[in-house]
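Table 4 source record.
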Amino acid sequence: MISFSSFPVQTDDVYPTTKHPDEALMDLDDFDHLEAGGSRLTYPGETLTSSQAFMRWDHSVAFEISGHGTYVDNEEVISSVAGTIERVNKLVTVRAIRTRYNPEVGDLVVGRITEVQPKRWKVDANSRQDAVLMLSSVNLPGGIQRRKLESDELQMRNFFEEGDLLVAEVQAFFADGAMSLHTRSLRYGKLRNGQIVAVPPILVRRLKSHFLSLPCGVDLILGLNGYIWVSKHVKESEQEGEEGFDAEAVYSNQNDEIDESTRTAISRVTNIIRILSSHFIPLSDTLLLNAYEWVVEQEGTVKDLLLEDYGDVLVASITGR
């Protein structure tokens, strides 16, 4: 005997609900400022967005749209680390505040030699593993272009030795993920006449040039790995390619004579960088110049910059916070 039964009545809860277009636009408006290069701090567990414009309901593809530093839970993109929110089209990521440097080919980095090995140097570049500088990737004294010989390998410590600081460019990556550096340009190589200061790599943005000169007689090298070199200004006549450039001194371990006013300027710029870093403010040449001029106008000393209250007033004055 055949029996017939009616289909159950469908309820509204069976079908997935979709947001009204206006609601999706409201979520999009919250991220509009990120398109212009801005950023916003977030914390672990904060819901970033649930808009369909940023993720799909199909969980098999939702993880492709939620980028690094995020995860999907209950159809919402949630931050998993403390950092800044970044948006590329429909991809939302969170860049962690405290993290190691993630290198890319072409990046300018400042590093320290940690070990001398056959035909190579190991370099601490604030990454997850030491970088490698091959003997074939450096300039010979005097800028001579020729193939490296066995005699050059025996004199490697005359070029770089443990503890030396250098500026280099990321050339490639090895199979294990280690960076391969090069210093073939005369602008790269051993660093002298200054001091190094470390900041979170996230605070160093990509600029057209990471070699900056401030009117106070101080040169800056903003390494994308978070190491910043603050040094005595090099005159144009003494720069590479000019008549006064000493190509033989590129591997010298002796600092030049630095007068007291230049030492004071270097210390001031270094302490200003530390203050801006402690307040999580991205660094730029304009911001550093404004901060230095403010300190000079206030007749602040180098020791004053070490005071917490003084640093708070400095940041409030130059950023309007």
